[in-house]
Specification:
The complex is a heterodimer of chains A (about 375) and B (about 270). Chain A is α/β, with parallel strands linked by helices and about 375 residues long. In chain A, about 30% of the residues lie in helices and about 20% in strands. Chain A has helices at about 15-30, 50-60, 75-80, 90-95, 115-125, 135-150, 160-180, 180-190, 200-215, 250, 340, and strands at about 5-10, 35-45, 65-70, 85-90, 215-220, 220, 255, 265-270, 270-275, 285, 290-295, 300-305, 315-320, 320-325, 330, 350-355, 360-365. In chain A, helix 1 (about 15-30) packs parallel to helix 2 (about 50-60). The radius of gyration of chain A is 24 Å and the shape is globular. Chain B starts with a strand and ends with a helix. The chains are: A alpha/beta (about 375), B alpha/beta (about 270). Chains A and B meet through loops of A and loops of B.
C-alpha cells in the first residue's frame, strides 16, 4: 500500500520514547533513505508534543520527511494532526472498515469481523489458482466453514457487519439459556460438512500423494531411535504446544537482514525472517513465522518457534545442521556437509515443510 | 564406584587438547568403559565436530545449567559407540554463561553414571579454565615439544598444583616428530619431561591422518593403521591403570628412505 518513496518503520513493539528514538536512528543510519517519506508505526504508544517534535527533527536531520503516523492512540493522533502529519490507523484495524477484495493468489487473513464475508469467500474460491499451495487451500476451506456457520445460525452473510454481530450475539444468549456454558459446547459440536469443491479436494490429495515423490530428502529426526532412552523425552515442554494456525505467518512482521550470519550469532524474530546472505554453521535463526535465506543455510533454523507447524524454511541451498519447524526437530544426514566438502556455485532452492510430523524438503519450483 | 573426572588442558591453544579428548574418550569407550566428554569451550566449541556429532546437538551445557532441560537430555550418544556420550558446549554464548560451581555439580552428577568424565578445557587460564578444572580430580596436561607450549604447560601445572581437588596430573607430549628429534631440530620427549618434571602419560607422534579424521568427524583411534591412533589407545590404557610400554614412534623406514640411504652410501 505504500510505494517506493515511502519507508515504513515499525515501532509498535517499542515501549518508551528513548527506545523509539534509538531504533529509529539505527534504522535511518544503516540504510540510506534521504528524501523518503517516513511512515512511523506507533500502534498504541502515547507520545506528547515535544517527543513527537524531537522524533520529527531526528527524521529531518537524516534528510527524510515524517509523512504518516500509524497509531490507535487518540492523543498521539491528535498531536500528530496538529503537526500536519497524516494519521492512519494500523492495517489490522482498518480491515473491518474498508475491506478490499483480495486479488487472486493473495490471501489476506480475514475473520468474522469483515463485511461481505460471503462475497469475498466465493470470489476467492471461483478465482482460485490451482497451483496455489496447500496452505492457501486450507485457508479457503476455513473461510468456507465460517460462512456455513453463519448460515446455520440463521444469519444472512450478505447483510452488514453490525447486523451479523447482533444476530450472532442473540444466538449466543439464546443458546446460553438452554446450555449453561455454550462456549465449551460449541467446541465439542461436530464441524459442519464442508462444501464440495472437487478440484480443490483432488489437488489436496495429490499434494499428499506426491509428497514422497517430490520431496528430495527427508531430514532425519534429530534423535535416532536408539538414542531415545526410557521416557526422558516426554517431559520436554520447553516449547509451546503446537498450533495449526495457517494464517500466523502472513500476519506477522518480516525482519529483513542483509548480511551473513556467522557462527555464534542468533537471530530471533517475532515474525518472518528474510536473510540476504549465507548462514554459517553454528549460527541460529529462530522465527515465529517463516524463514527465507537467499544464500546457503548451514546453521540451525527454527521456523514457527512458538509452535506453528505450518511455518516453512526456504534456502537457495539447504545444508542446515538442524531444521526445526514448530515442535518437529530434524538433523542433516551424516556425511553431507556441502560448504566444507563440495563448495559448488550451483544452487538448488529448497523448501522445508512438515508433512505428517516429518520435515521434508521440496524443490521450490515443484511446489 | 564413582568414576573419575579428568580434565584435559594445556594453556596454549592449538596443541591438540580437543583432538586428545576426542581420541582418549573414544579409546576408553572401545575398551568398554562408560565415558562422557564435556566440552567447556563455550562459544568456540569444536569437540562435536571431531566426533561428527554436530548435527545431533539439541541441548547444550548452558541449557542444563539454566535448567531448560535435564542433564540426561543434553547427552548426545556417539554414532558408533553407545558407551560414549558428549555434553556439548553452546556456540551462541560465552564462558561466563557457566560458573565453576555449576560445572562441578554437573561433574559430580555424571560421575555417578559414568566411569570416566573427560573435560575438554579451553585455551587460556581465565574463567573457562577455572570452570573446567573445578570438578576434576585428575588432569592431563597436553604440550608439544616447543618452548612456547612448554612454558604455558608449566604455568598450568603450577595452577593445577594449587587446586585442591586435582590429585594427580600427567603430561602428554603431542605432535612429536622423531625425525626432527634425531636431527636435533626438535626437543626430545625426555627433555620436555625433565623441564616440566612431571609424570609422562604418553607420547603422540605427528600424524597427517589427524587432519583428515578431523575433517571427516571421526576420531583417529578408529583407524587401526594410524600410529597416532595406537598411541592414543595406549594412553587410554594407562589411564585405566594398565602398564603399557611407550610406543615405538620411530617412523617406519620407507622405500624412499632405503633408496636415499643406498645413494648416500655410494656417495
Amino acid at each position: 500500500m505504500y510505494d517506493n518513496e515511502y519507508f515504513v518503520v515499525d515501532m509498535a513493539s517499542c515501549t518508551s520514547t528513548g527506545e523509539i528514538i534509538n531504533s529509529l536512528s539505527l534504522a535511518l543510519e544503516t540504510l540510506n533513505h534521504s528524501g523518503k517519506k517516513i511512515v512511523l508505526k506507533l500502534n498504541e504508544s502515547y507520545l506528547n508534543q515535544s517527543q513527537m517534535l524531537s522524533i520529527q527533527s531526528l527524521i529531518t536531520s537524516y534528510g527524510c520527511i515524517l509523512d504518516t503516523v500509524e497509531t490507535i492512540n487518540p492523543d498521539t493522533a491528535r498531536i500528530a494532526e496538529n503537526m500536519n502529519i497524516i494519521v492512519q490507523k494500523p492495517i489490522e484495524k482498518r480491515v473491518e472498515e474498508n475491506y478490499d477484495t483480495p486479488k487472486t493468489g493473495e490471501f489476506e487473513p480475514f475473520t468474522l469481523q469483515s463485511k461481505k464475508t460471503d462475497d469475498i469467500a466465493l470470489k476467492d474460491v471461483t478465482g482460485l489458482h490451482f497451483e496455489a499451495d496447500l496452505d492457501a487451500i486450507q485457508r479457503q476451506q476455513n473461510d468456507i466453514n465460517i460462512n456455513l456457520d453463519l448460515k446455520e445460525a440463521g444469519v444472512n452473510p450478505r447483510s452488514d457487519f453490525e447486523t451479523i454481530e447482533n444476530q450472532i450475539s442473540n444466538q449466543y444468549t439464546k443458546a446460553e439459556e438452554i446450555i449453561p456454558n455454550v462456549e465449551e459446547y460449541s467446541k465439542i459440536a461436530s464441524p459442519i460438512e464442508m462444501m464440495d469443491f472437487p478440484e480443490v479436494q483432488q489437488e489436496e490429495n495429490k499434494e499428499f500423494e506426491n509428497a514422497e515423490k517430490n520431496s528430495i530428502g527427508v531430514y532425519k529426526k534429530a534423535y535416532d531411535e536408539n538414542q531415545l532412552q526410557d521416557d526422558e523425552w516426554e517431559e520436554v515442554d520447553f516449547y509451546e504446544t503446537p498450533t495449526n494456525d495457517p494464517v500466523v505467518s502472513d500476519t506477522k512482521n518480516t525482519t529483513y537482514i542483509n548480511q551473513t550470519l556467522r557462527s555464534g550469532q542468533i537471530l530471533e524474530a517475532d515474525g518472518n525472517v528474510v536473510i540476504i546472505g549465507d548462514c554459517h554453521p553454528g549460527s541460529e535463526i529462530r522465527a515465529v513465522g517463516d524463514i527465507t535465506v537467499w544464500g546457503v543455510l548451514s546453521g540451525i533454523a527454527h521456523a514457527g518457534c512458538k509452535g506453528n507447524i505450518n511455518a516453512r524454511v526456504r534456502a537457495l541451498k539447504m545444508n542446515a545442521v538442524q531444521l526445526r519447524i514448530g515442535n518437529c526437530y530434524s538433523r542433516r544426514p551424516d556425511g553431507t556437509n556441502i560448504p566444507y566438502i563440495i563448495r559448488s556455485s550451483i544452487f538448488t532452492p529448497e523448501e522445508a515443510r512438515v508433512i505428517d510430523g516429518e520435515i521434508m524438503l521440496f524443490k521450490i519450483n515443484q511446489n | 564406584m564413582a568414576g573419575s573426572v579428568i580434565v584435559i588442558t594445556s594453556g596454549k591453544g592449538g596443541v591438540g587438547k580437543t583432538t586428545t579428548s576426542a581420541n582418549i574418550g573414544t579409546a576408553l569407550a572401545h575398551l568398554g568403559y562408560k565415558v562422557v566428554l564435556i566440552d567447556t569451550d563455550i562459544g568456540l566449541r569444536n569437540l562435536d565436530l571431531l566426533l561428527g556429532l554436530e548435527n545431533r546437538i539439541v541441548y547444550t551445557i548452558v541449557d542444563v545449567v539454566e535448567e531448560r532441560c535435564k542433564l540426561k537430555q543434553a547427552l548426545v550418544k556417539d554414532k558408533k559407540n553407545p558407551n560414549l556420550c558428549l555434553l556439548a558446549a553452546a556456540q551462541t554464548r560465552d564462558k561466563s554463561a557457566v560458573d565453576a560451581d555449576q560445572l562441578k555439580d554437573i561433574c559430580e552428577k555424571l560421575k555417578e553414571d559414568f566411569d570416566y568424565v573427560l573435560v575438554d578445557c579451553p585455551a587460556g587460564i581465565e574463567q573457562g579454565f577455572q570452570n573446567a578444572v573445578a570438578g576434576a580430580n585428575e588432569a592431563i596436561v597436553v604440550t608439544t615439544p616447543e618452548m612456547s607450549a612448554i612454558r604455558d604447560a608449566d604455568r598450568i601445572i603450577g595452577l593445577l598444583e594449587s587446586k585442591e581437588g586435582v590429585e594427580r596430573y600427567r603430561l602428554l607430549v603431542n605432535r612429536v616428530r622423531p625425525k626432527l628429534i634425531k636431527s636435533n631440530d626438535m626437543m626430545g620427549v625426555d627433555d620436555v619431561v625433565e623441564i616440566l618434571s612431571c609424570d609422562l602419560i604418553g607420547v603422540i607422534p605427528e600424524d597427517t591422518n589427524i587432519i583428515t579424521s578431523t575433517n571427516k568427524g571421526e576420531p583417529v583411534v578408529n583407524d587401526e593403521k594410524s600410529l597416532a591412533g595406537m598411541a592414543y589407545i595406549n594412553v587410554a590404557k594407562r589411564i585405566t591403570g594398565e602398564d603399557v610400554p611407550l610406543l615405538d614412534i620411530d617412523e617406519p623406514i620407507t622405500l624412499i628412505d632405503k633408496i636415499k640411504k643406498f645413494f648416500a652410501k655410494k656417495a
